[in-house]
# Entry
Amino acid sequence: MRWVWIDRVLELETGRRLVAIKHVSLSEDHIHDHFVAEPERSLRAMPVMPASLIIEGMAQSGGILVGHANQFREKVVLAKVSKVELEREAGPGHTLKYTAEIERMDESGASVNGTVELIDHTAGGKPQRIGRIDLIFSHIDKNMSGMGFPEHNFVFSETFRTLLQTSGIQVDF
# Structure
């Protein structure tokens, strides 16, 4: 995984729940493309984090939760985004708070229910729920197609190890 869309894991209850945050910053390149100023139409720039990246932040949070439940022995991949409801955008200076909870887990994978909250530090800093994202993950080594994959866990990279360790979570993968 090249891009990490969470900055820190705040809480981790093995096999049950994970809470992570993402600070949205004006220094991130993708912010400038959503949405650029159009002076000829008198439209000012409105930098926002695209919804697809908010979904990816939840997918990474849920994936870590599912992977951690089995000490990262399984290669966990996102199989399906079952539900997305996002009520507003996140922009520079906001913090996104992802809460992922395992609904069901077995040897083939897991389903995760997620909520997204937005913390606006200029408006009191109280988290406001802005959405729900439900996901299904697969353990690809247990796939039904019979396809083989490399032995090493290519899903959970060194970047994820660093993220978890700087969040106070010890990992061996």
User: Anything to note?
Assistant: The first strand starts at residue 8 and ends at 13. The radius of gyration is 17 Å.
